[in-house]
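Re: Re: C-alpha cell formats

Sure, here are both.
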Amino acid sequence: MSSVKTMRIVSLLPGTTEIVCALGLADHLVAVTHECDYPPEVKGLPVVTRSLLDETETASSSEIDAAVRERARNELSIYELDMELLSSLQPDVILTQALCDVCAVPLHQVEASLANPAIQVLSFEPVDLAGIFGSIKAIGRALGVVERAEHLVNELTARVERVKTLAAQATSRPRVVCIEWLDPVFGPGHWVPEMVAIAGGQPLLGTAGGRSRRIIWTDVIASAPEVLIVMPCGFTLERTIAEARAILPQRAGWDALPAVRMGRVFAVDGNAYFSRPGPRIVDSLELLASMIHPELFAGWGPTGASAVIQ
C-alpha cells in the first residue's frame, strides 16, 4: 500500500468522500462521484461517475421508482463509470460500497471495470452506527491515519452518548414514523430506526439494521405516528418539502394522523444527512432528537436541515 504522502484516492460514495476529508486527507482525493458535494472543496475534483437515469432532477418519486425498477428488471446499471478518466488518474485506492445498487456504483461493477490489480478496492457496507464508525476506522487503517480515525470516532461516539443520556430523561417516547420514499412509500431501514430509539422515540415500520422496505399507506395510518419525518433518499430539503406537500395530504386518513393534528410532520435533508453513512450521521441523530423531543434538544442539529410541513 502507498504511503499517505503519495496516496491517490478515488471515492465512489459521498459518505466515504466525507470520511476521507474528515480524516484530513482531502488533498489526496483525485476523483469523486457526481453526487459528492461535501465538503465544498471536493466540488472541483474530477468526476468519474454519472447517472444513467434520465431527468432525475425533475422526475417525480413514482417516475424515479419506475425507472429504477425497469433497469433492475433488465439487469442494467444505474450508474456509469468513466473508465478512461479513472485509469488516467492512476489511483492507489478506490473506496466503494456493496450496500445498495441504487445509492452508488456497486462493488461488482467497479471490480469488473478495473484492469489494474495493483489498485486497492475497499468496500463498505455499514447498516448501523457501529458499522459506520467501523468504516471510519477501517478507512483510517487503510490510509495510514489510524490515530486520526480513532479520535474522530471517539468524538462522534461521545456525541451519541450525550443524546442518549439526555433522551433518557424524557417523560414519554413518541411513536415515530420515518418515510424514506414517498411514492411508493418506503419505511426506514439501516441506521434510522436505531437513531430514533437513541433519540427517545419509538421507531415504527422499520427494523434497525434491516433494509428500507416498501410499506402500504394503511400501515402508516394504523401506526398512528405522533411524529412523522419525511426523508427521501437523495432528496434535498426543498425537494422533499415540495413532494411531501403535493403527495401526502391527498392520502386517505392524512388529516386524522396524530402527527398531523399536532403539527409534528417534518421534512429533512435526507441527501445531506440521513442517506450518507459518514461523520454527519451524528448531525442527523441530533436533528432527530430536536424533532422528537424539542423540550430537551431545542437548537440541536444542523441549521436549515429540517422544516415543519404540517
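Second one below.
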Amino acid sequence: MAFFTLNKASLTHNYRYLQKLFSKNDMSWAPVLKMLCGNEKYIEFILSLGDEQVCDARLSNLKTIKKLKPGIETIYIKPPAKRSIKNIVKYADVSFNTEYTTIKWLSEEAKKQNKVHRVIIMIELGDLREGIMGDHLMDFYKKIFQLPNIKVAGIGTNLNCLSGVMPSKDKLIQLCLYEQLIEAKFDQKIDGVSGGSSVMVPLLLKGIVPQGINHFRVGETLFFGSDLFTNETIPGMKDDIFTLHSEVIEITEKPSVPYGNLEKNPSGDMFEVDETKFTDIQKRAILDIGLLDISKVDFLKPLDSSLNFVGASSDMLVIDITNAKKDYKVGDIITFRTDYMGALRVMNSEYIEKRFI
C-alpha cells in the first residue's frame, strides 16, 4: 500500500524560519492549511507549533481546526457561498469577501449567533481572481461600515494564483494607498493589510515590501520552502517535508511500445508509436498507485533519478527501470518528492496512508 510521510523536524524548521522572518519585520502571518485536507494528526501537529492565525478554504477543515484548538483564530480564505453562511460565522473568525450581499448575509447570521464577524475585503490588482475593482472601493466600504455585527478587519489582495501575475513593489504600494484612502475618507482604522501568499516571501527577503503591508498567508513556502519567483528552495528552508512511497507490485521485461490496434486510453490519451523501437525491450516496474491518487505523473519526481515514467492508469503507475542504479525487486519501495499540487492530490486521496517521520 502506498503511503505519504510528513517530516516533523523539517516542518518545524520551516515554521520557525517564517516565525523569525515575520517577527523581525514586525508583521503577522497565518499558515494556510488547506493542503492538509483535514488530516487531524497533521493539523494537530502544526497547531502545536504556534498560536498564529490559520487559514483554510474548506469549512470542514476549519471545523476540525476549531475542534483541535478552540481558541485558535481561523480565516476562511475565499468569498463565502450563501448556503455556507451559518457555518462560516460558526467556524471562521474572519472571512475574505468581495460582495456586499454576502457580507449582509454574514451580518444577519452573526447577529443570530451573537457574534461580531470580521471581514477582509479583497481588492483586484490584476490577477483577475477574487477582488473588487478599485474604482468601486469607496462606495463598497461606505455600505459595509453601516452593517451591524460586522467589523472590517482589513483589506487584502491575491496574486499569482489564477493568471500568474506576480507581485511587485508598485502593486503593493497601490494596496497600501487604498488602505490610506479608506481610513482618511471614513475615519476608520484598517488594522490589517494582507499582501498575499507565499509568492510574497521572496520580496520580503529582499526588503522591498512596503511598510504598510503587515500580514501574509503562507502555505506552499511553509511546506516546500519554495521561492515562487525562481522555483528553487529558499536558502535556509527545507524542501523534504512530504514524501510519497509506493510499492513495486510487478517487474517484467516487455516490449517498449504497445502492439495491436490502438485507440485512446481511458484518460483520453493516444499512444504515439515509434516504429524504430519495435524490437526494443524495456524492464518495467508497476507501482501500487495511480491517477486516482496523483492526478498526473508530472507532479512526481523520483528520488532515484535513473527512473523514468512510462505512464499511468487509474490504479497503477508504470516506471522504466531498465537503467536503474538499483536492482529493484517486487516488494521494494520507490520514493517520490511531490510539488505543491501533487501533495494536494495525494493528501486528498483516502487510499494513501498518511504517516509521520
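The CA atoms of residues 62 and 82 lie 17 Å apart. The first helix runs from residue 8 to 24.
- S.
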